[in-house]
Amino acid sequence: MEHKPFVPEKTDLKEFTFRAVFFGAIFAVVLGAANAYLGLKVGLTVAATFPAAVMAMAVLKGLKGSVLEENIFRTTAAVGEALVAGAIFTIPAFLIAKDPATGKPLWSHLHYFESTVLMLLGGVLGVLFVSFLRKVLVEDKTLPFPESVACAEIVKAGQGGASGAKYVFGSILFAAFLEFIKNPVGGLALFKDSFSKFIHFKTSAINFLTTNGKSLMSKKFGGGMLLKSPNASPAMLGVGYIIGYKPSAIVFSGGVFAWLLFVPLLNFLFSGSFDSLIGQQINGVTVTETVISGAIWNSIVRPFAVGAMLVGAFYTLYSMRKSLWTGIKRGFKDLSKIKEEIEEGSEVSRLEQDLPFKFTIIAIFLLVIPIAMIYYFFCQSVAGAIVAALVMTLAGFLFAAVAGFLVGTIGSSNNPISGLTLSTLIVAALIMVTIGVKGGPGIAAVLGVAAVVCTSSGVAGDIMQDLKVGHIIGGTPWKMEIACIIGVIAASLVMVFPMQVLHTATPGGIGGPNLPAPQAGLMAMLAEGIVGGQMAWPLVLTGIGFSIGMILIGAPSPMLIAVGMYLPLESTFAIFVGGIIRVLADRFAEKSGLDKGNETFVNTGTLIASGLIAGEALMGMGIAAIVAFRDKLHIPNFSLGEPLGAWGGLLVFLPIAYILIKLPINAAKKNNG
């Protein structure tokens, strides 16, 4: 059956216009900044294709823009999120990884030039790699492209007036308002985000017996358990709603393992060692049971979780081995197939025109040169720089093909780019050690390879999703690919600033409890451990054993369980509450007479949840900027001192649950007439 796009091949509609690209580039930065905040906070990002599509309709409708202009706007805007998704998994690792020679982080702050170049080169390479693969992948009828099809339906509905913009922008404003009144650093601090309570265990005596029953010694233990409430976070609830109950429950189960099993157990065993510290001032911190529990989690449980994440990442890749292998084979087949078609010289339809093949090949080779140069800057070794550039180029193309295939199968939101990058990092690290590039320079070079591959894979997956939307709508591929490059450039040039502001203005910075950046922490620890020889291997190995056990009993997604252990409990708890709200919304929808999976209901809920994420993230970024420049600009402190305490935070869940349940149901009923 011949494909018939929404807009036919022959059309007079405007497409690649200044306003479409300009507004798209602005929103690429905005959506990228929002996802940087979210990714650093909980290690998850949300595909920006849906909110970008709605924003494109909202902005260009008033300017009487065409659907093809909206397509360019959306493509340009969405790539900002994809670029940042790759960047925040890797670049913050430079702030976390330590130089073995000095014991200090490789970077004390984000280096603008190096960070920007890594993002820019990785992002543009992702676009160029995908331009090879677009034709065969988007026309493959065996690939469902679930998120692309859903987005195309939103765009089509928007041409009839049903844009959904009010849901996105309304929830953005609501979430931004909540973040402003609750933020304790630069907002009103009206109430607490969450509360915690340390419950003491009664002192217990354990008699240690040998296997033949003879007593070795008797020892008394105490300790306790630190309980926490979920964060009153619209963004976390939105994430839980979008990913659904099961994934959110799996992430929360990791938090349960960490905070209700491992931390209490270690508190119990170490109670004698820590009791004498209670009440003391150490490095400006008053030691309490809560502080000790946090130290145990940060110093023992998180390295354990890194080992579990390592196995989880590779198991995720293993479980996708058939899809991965198919993607790899297809990537190389498509190269020769597309080259043959171009060399035939036949006239190519507007709907099939990609970037010129020769231009793309030359551009890739030219980009490898500055990549090798920046790797030399990191490691000061010609051999190391060449090897790093070769590993990056091969892995970059390979995983661009794989990412494109996986997006066609399971959607961009489920693209396992951190797992793909992890395997590249380990290969690069082992090669660096083999050729003698060690210590801080070796760690920096390995992280540089990981950064380019991760941004390339993230951008490749997102672009493939957008190109499929364009294929359905009737967009011109080469114009969309140029728009993607512009979006990459815009986001790359700016994105260091919001990340640095977050690092500076957030207590603990990137890698601390408020911005744990789990994937970057994992990359940093592995690079340190392999290249620098600095790793708590016993903890990592026991984490590996734990994850293997999870696999053997058939536990769903050991990777998500490990991420849940690495993240603060209040964050995973809030994500879980968002998943519960999704279950309740689905049940109320069915009771209201809606079909299961009603398209309007699902899309409206996704748009509202996306708005909640963007609203909190953007206000969080704004507040962080105010805090960073408060002294220079003489901005007063707005804090009210949290007069409503933790109860105010708990009340926030009610209106959020209401809008995530009631509004999608009402929208679906209205659409059904």
From TrEMBL:
Segments crossing the lipid bilayer: 20-38, 44-63, 75-96, 116-133, 249-270, 300-320, 359-378, 384-407, 419-437, 443-461, 482-502, 573-589, 601-629, 644-661
Keywords assigned: Membrane, Transmembrane, Transmembrane helix, Transport
Topology relative to the membrane: Multi-pass membrane protein
Coiled coil: none
Domain of life according to the entry: Bacteria
InterPro entries referenced in this protein's UniProt entry, alphabetically: Oligopep_transpt, OPT, YSL-like
Any single Gene Ontology cellular-component annotation: membrane
Localization in the cell: Membrane
NCBIfam families: OPT family oligopeptide transporter, OPT_sfam
Protein name in the entry: OPT family oligopeptide transporter
Naturally occurring in which organism (per UniProt): Thermotomaculum hydrothermale
